[in-house]
Amino acid sequence: PNWMKQLHNLSKLTLSVRALRTDNLNHLSVLEALFSLTFLYRGKELDRETSAILAENKLATGGEITVPPNGFKSLKLFRLFAPLLPLMRFSTNAMQHLERLDLRYSMLEGLFGAENIERLKEVHFTSNYEAGKDLMTEAIMSQMKNAGKTIILHQ
Question: Whose CA is closest to 37, among 117, 82, 95, 119?
C-alpha cells in the first residue's frame, strides 16, 4: 500500500474489512484530504477465509488493531461494517477531527480510546444488540455517554 501515499486529494475511501490492519491505518493516516473512511464486509456472515485474515491482522500487532496518533487530519467519518469487528484501540490524539463513528456488527470484540476523541459527536451502533446480553456494547455505550458523546442505536 505504499501507492496510497500518492493519493493526496482522495477524500472518500471504502476498503474491504480484510484491509483493516494497523499498518494500513498508518499508511492511510497521512492522506491529508481524507474525509470519510469505511471498512466494509458485504456478506451477512463471515466466511472462513475472511475470519482467518482478520485474526492474522490482529495477531500481527499484539491482538488488536491500533489507530495511530496524529494522523487523519481531515477525517470526519469513520465506518466499520462487518459481522465481527476486531478489538480496536484509538491511540492518544488519534483521529482528532473525527465527528462520527459508525459501527455495524453482530459481534464487537472491543473498542478502546474512542471516547477520548475530542470532536467526536455521534457514535452509531447497528447490531443485534439486546439489553443485558451484549455486555461489550453496553460497556462501550456507557463510556461514550460518560464522555458526552451522542449514542444512536439502530437495530
Answer: 95
Name the nearest CA neighbour of 106 among 86, 132, 79, 78.
86
Contacts of 37 (CB under 8 A, 6+ apart): 13, 15, 28, 72, 75, 77, 78, 79
Distance of CA 84 to CAs 106, 111, 112, Å? 6, 12, 16
Q: Do 68 and 91 touch, CB atoms closer than 8 A?
A: yes
Give pLDDT tens digits for 17-41.
989 999 999 999 999 999 999 999 9
Query: Grid coordinates representing 132?
Result: 443485558
pTM of the model: 0.89
